[in-house]
Amino acid sequence: MDVLWAARTDPGLRRPHNEDNFCARPDLGLFLVADGMGGHAGGEVASRLAVEAIEAFIAESTGPDIDTVWPFQYDAAISLDANRLRTAFRLANRRLQDEVTRQFLLRGMATTASGLLIGADGVANAAHVGDSRIYRHREDTLVKLSQDHSWVEEQVRAGVLDASAASQHPWRNVVTRAISGGDEPMVDLFPVPLHDGDRILLCSDGLSVTVTEESLAQALREESELGALADRLIDAANAAGGPDNITVLLLEVHAA
Predict the structure, then answer these.
(1) Cα→Cα distances 128→133, 134, 239, Å
(2) Among 240, 218, 235, 239, CA closest to 248
């Protein structure tokens, strides 16, 4: 299985700096988006440290000597790659904890993280914490694979708010789960079956809160080249006001 990819990140139109980070390591099968939060540039630090920690563990846990780097108990109920992702996210949390201990001004920093790990056998697993998103586009249909960990999304699932009210609610940016350096994060883990021609979109909420899913699906359907598609999505978010940092990471799957 061959995987093409393209990525873009942009500060948007209203933020003085970019607190998003991403990782694209096709040699590891790892693709990751992180959206940082926190004052004193803490969000930028949080997302960078999390991405570095996740990437480092995935690299270290590749190959026959995996037992030598396994810091948590292995869960036989889930796949090897799901274990690797969950461990990587937990280690990212510990990395933030260590940094807060060193630099008090970073207290309160946190980050979302949404990642995909594609094994050598072409089987993909996803891990997700926060309100960045993972979408799959297949045969002109866009499906959101991840579930937002946000206050408004919880109210929508409970039937208290509808989607329209949630999009305008003043608490729409309140995240209920994050990698923050506190308690170990609850990480959503799920397999992502991949078919020839699939496109996967990982993005920060700077895209998803400004561009409708209908517009995302249209762009994914119309743009044949991934770099042009990434540019189009960034431009669409900025055309809608660009209120937040925007990161787009696109994958396109081709059968070998």
Answers:
(1) 8, 8, 28
(2) 235
8-64, pLDDT tens digit by residue? 999 999 998 999 999 999 999 999 999 999 866 799 999 999 999 999 999 999 876
Q: List strand residue ranges (DSSP E) for 43-150, in order.
A: 110-111, 113-118, 124-129, 133-138, 141-144
Proportion of the chain above pLDDT 70, given as a percent? 88
Domain boundaries, the chain: 2-254
Nearest of 94, 97, 69 to residue 84 by alpha carbon? 69
Instruction: Give 103's DSSP letter.
Output: -
118 φ, ψ to 5°? Answer: -105, 120
Distances (CA, A) of 57 to 54, 114, 172: 5, 16, 32
The answer for residues whose C-beta is within 8 angstroms of residue 108's C-beta and 6 or more apart is 38, 39, 42
Task: Pick left, alpha or beta for residue 112 (phi over 0 → left; psi -120 to 50 → alpha; otherwise beta).
Answer: beta
> What does the DSSP 8-state code read for residue 179?
B
CA 90, 93, 97 angle in degrees (round to 5)?
A: 140
C-alpha to C-alpha distances, 164 to 153, 167, 212, nearest whole angstrom? 11, 5, 12
Query: Architecture of 2-254 per CATH?
Result: 4-Layer Sandwich (3.60)
Q: Rounded distance, CA 174 to CA 109, Å?
A: 14
Place of tokens 């914490």: 129
* Cβ atoms of residues 213 and 146 within 8 Å: no
